[in-house]
Amino acid sequence: MPPIIEVQDLSKEFRTFRRREGVWGALQNLFVREYLTVHAVDRINFAIEPGEMVGYIGANGAGKSTTIKMLTGILVPTRGRVVCNGFVPYRDRRHYTKHIGVVFGQRTQLWWDIAVIESFKLLKEIYEIPDADYRRRLDFFSEILSVKDYLHTPVRKLSLGERMRCDLAASLLHNPPLLFLDEPTIGLDVVAKDRIREFLKEINRQEKTTVLLTTHDLSDIEELSRRIIIIDKGRILFDGDLVEMKKRLAKYNQVKFFLKDRSQVAKLDTFARNGISCDRVDELTYLMRFDREQHSTAEVIRDIVNQLQVRDIFVEEEPIEDIVKRIYLSGEVGLQKGEA
After folding, report:
1. Mean of the pLDDT values across residues 137-149?
2. Domains in the chain: how many in total?
3. Are 12 and 89 within one domain?
4. Which of 64, 116, 281, 340 has its CA 20 to 30 A from that of 173?
């Protein structure tokens, strides 16, 4: 089976002119303009198989939103090749959009002043969804997204979490095989995030919907995606398995421990050595972080229990945020899917 998304040497450049400062600069701009070429996306390559759920992450300005806009047909690439579900997005956009779902966390596809159900009915006509399929999908979303209570409420009166659930339902009414999500949990509370994550897992499990997810919330990635693609300055730095990334690129481990009483705090100075740091979490809780190449986890735990009286102790992996931050700073990982 061919990939549902195939990207080869994809690039997008924007041409802008540099504005000079001050009144004299503004006058110069009227007659002489200095143009700059910005490489928003620079010769990227990847393929996504049907049914995959992939996290696509990057810092602000890294090129991830530009990539999504090319994959959805909003932007035309400067060069390169992109095929999604058999379509060239920008060339076949009218037919292609009937085979994808798109949710932008900051924007809604629902009509602002009418009830949610009326937006759904309009989308039913736009996507030419048969009556029986429409009713079945609506019942399904009412059950697992709990949108039934909001169907007769104008969109403008919904909370952000309620609107996001309705937007997700709207994007999947026509049962597309491919779903693009751009910051779907931005601004949501913990309960709303959890509900949306569980819904996405269910859609992926039951209907094999392929999902490409961009987010700044790396807990979304850990919850939903096995594969992660990291882009920075328009180029892909990493494309591979999330677990494999942690194994290969994690530099530190950490041990969280809970002291028996405050008298133990003074003994923490004995752990000050090369490759080990100890940070206070609260009055009796501390986090010891150590370089995996210099110290083993067993060694650190043995020292803790031998020199301190502790109530409990936990071994933790290095947070994914720290690993990704290091990848951004180095900019030299270049590990692609399938490399070992």
Report:
1. 86
2. 2
3. yes
4. 64
Interval 184-200: pLDDT, tens: 887 777 888 888 888 99
Q: pLDDT at position 215, please?
A: 83
209 in any annotated domain: yes
Domain span at 187: 5-247
272-296 pLDDT tens trace: 777 788 888 998 999 998 888 888 8
**Residue where a domain stops, chosen among 188, 219, 247:** 247
